[in-house]
Structure formats: C-alpha cells, structure tokens
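quick one before i forget lol
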Amino acid sequence: MRLILVFAMFYDPLWAQQAEQEQVEETIRVTASRAGDAVEAGPHSGIELDLEPGSVGSALSLDTVLTTIPGVVVRNRHNLSQGDRITIRGTGTRAQFGVRGIKLLMDGIPLTMPDGQSQTNNLDLTAVGRIHVLRGPASSLYGNASGGVIELFTDLGADRLTVTPEFLGGSDEIRSQRLDVAGRTGDLRFRLNGTRHQEKGFRDHSQARFDRFNLVANRTLGPGWSLSLAANHFSAPYMLNPSSLTKQDAETRPEYVRPFIFARGAAKKVDQTQAGLTLRAKTPTLTWQTTLYAVSRNLANPIPSSIIDLDRKASG
C-alpha cells in the first residue's frame, strides 16, 4: 500500500506536466511554408528570418543574410557581372552562371524565369524585412524548384512617413546613392526606393553601374481583404567582367586582365522590369491569395567562350 501511495504522489505531477507539454506543442506553428501547419504535420525543412530595418546596410549579396542557415551556401564572387552563386543542400553546385534549381521570389513575384534560371541583381536587401527559406524537395510546391525556395518580403516600415537618403563612397571609386520613402496614409502602406551604384573596381576591366527602383504598396479593402502591388525595374548599362586569373598572376599582379578578355568585351548588360498584383482574403475558416505578375528581361552577356543575347518575357 505504501508503494502505491508513493507512486501516486509522483505520478500526479508528472501526468499534469506531460499534459501541459502536449497542450503547448499543439500551439507551435511552422510558418516557412505557404500555409501555417501544426509542427507534427509539417514535413518541410524551412526557416524564417526576421531582419531589422537597415541591418544589412548597403549589401549587394545575399551572403550577408543567409550565411547562418544550415545547408545554404552563398558564394559572393565580388563581381557584379556574375552575381551570387547559391547552393541549397548541394543543388546549384553545377550551375556555371546565375542561380539554377532554386526558386527565388520577391514579394510574391518569381525572380526565377520559366527555364529555371534566377538572378539577384534587382534585390534591394536594405528594404527586406523577412525571408523564408525552404530546403529540400518540398520546394516543388512552388513550381520549378527542386533544390529549395528563397522568398523575400519587403518591410513596409512604420506608420509615420519616413524619408531616408543614403550616400556611400569608398575605394576604387565606389559611389552609391539611395533614397527610401516609406509610410502610411489611411488604409495604404507603401515603400518606394531608388538606387544608383557605380564603381571602377579593383581590377582592370571591372567597371560597373546600375540603377534600381522598387515600389511595394498594400491597401486594406475591408475586414480580411487586402490588395498589394509590387513593381521593380533594374537597369545595368554596363557591368564589365575581368574574368579569372592564374594562381601566379593572382599572386604577382592581381589587377591584371588577360588580353583576350578585353578583346572579347566580357561584360553584362541587363534591363529587367517586373510587376504584380496580389489579392488576399482571410476568414475564420479560409485563407487564400491570388497573384498576377509579368516579367520582362533583356540580357546581353558576351563571355570568353560565347555571346549570350536573350530577350525574355514571362507571366503567370
């Protein structure tokens, strides 16, 4: 009898603690997918990053924000004509240029063209407030993305109107000007910014210049209803490519560029415009959204082995 009583004394608190833990676990949500799922029902390997406004400064590469995520590798090649090389769990390692096998979205608009190639030039990381990263085959829920998904969302800022000018200067004739306007008026929240960046570059034949404009706005239409607009334009009249060096040249004359690179005119010229509208509705029993978008991308990219000249349009 004593043993039974002692067991009952310990069993009661343990049972209560276990019941409390089960109740807490039922409220945990996984938000790095298209819809919130209970943790036990979410087989996706996802992570969500919340960024403080301006925490990444005037970054031009995703390596500043994704470097801490397991399984995600971003190689910043410090060459604007080549851009980032992104790998998620090994997918993307064989891509010779651009980002392949990984879906990129910005405010609901795909940065990945129908052929599976993505580019990151038009990302304004200074205005990004939230990032979803989905790793593994569950990314197929987003379409042509066998390796993973990186989804970025613009921070619309505070309720008050803010105007933020930025000027950046550095060695190798780096000059960057940016103007950011964000705020709220009535039921409308918005963020508008423009950037002009130019640099001579450390190496010969590495001059670059680009202009970038972004507009994101969200209007509340009624209880549970909202309409969002996202528009972006990126124009790079020249981003010269000094290409690679031999080990000996890198150690003895790192600024050197091989003569046939000059002769070939290795460089990149890009003009891209995209825009989209998203209608969202949320009721006690249903949440859904519909996005209509269009993308136009013109690329002239002579490289040592060939000349790439592509004019593409996509919508969905």
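fyi The radius of gyration is 24 Å.
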